[in-house]
Write a structure and sequence with these properties.
This protein has 228 residues and is of the alpha/beta class. 37% of the residues lie in helices and 11% in strands. The chain has 8 helices and 5 strands.
Length: 228
Amino acid sequence: MIPKRAICLLSGGLDSATCLAIARHDGFENYCLSFDYGQRHRLELEAAARVAEHLKAAEHKIIAIDLRAFGGSALTSDMDVPKQRSAAEMGNGIPVTYVPARNTIFLSFALAYAEVRNASDIFIGVNAIDYSGYPDCRPEFIEAFERMANLATKAGVEGRSRISIRAPLIRMSKSDIVRAAIALGVDLSLTHSCYDPDPQGRPCGHCDSCLLRRKGFDEAGVSDPALK
């Protein structure tokens, strides 16, 4: 019997690790895709490799694309990463850590990978509740990409399979995600979320990603094993 296959976008952070664990729990054979896109927090790729091995991915590819060629983000240029922003500030407008069209680019690669691996499902760990205002983390974006995917692929046009973009975390709070990860047995000490780690790889503790992660663990009532 051929197992059902999924492509999982894996950054190495809390959300993508939980998303991969959900795909595994749902019975998928998982093919993981990470990107070396010129991000200042390239350390996350080491975390992605650890998580892929921990959750027994069938394959893990790291694709090199240089988004620093365009810049336009604090993650792919010399702009400062904002620190100590309040929840109100995070929810107001699009921050400078937004990487132009990043999820569109990543999902497009995942779509190509899905065609080659005969996978009908693509998992992405976007979240529209506790997030930093990114337009490509909204349900409307995911729904629109799925419609496009089924118009743009050979499998979709021929009617052999229908591509589903799965975003199981999209309406979950960060604390819900932490609880789900723990329930699924994810070793969260393997993950990395910080946008601006120090030279030793330690999280800054003050960027939006660090603050949202801390909020999730605090509200879930558990300590973050990555900080021990």
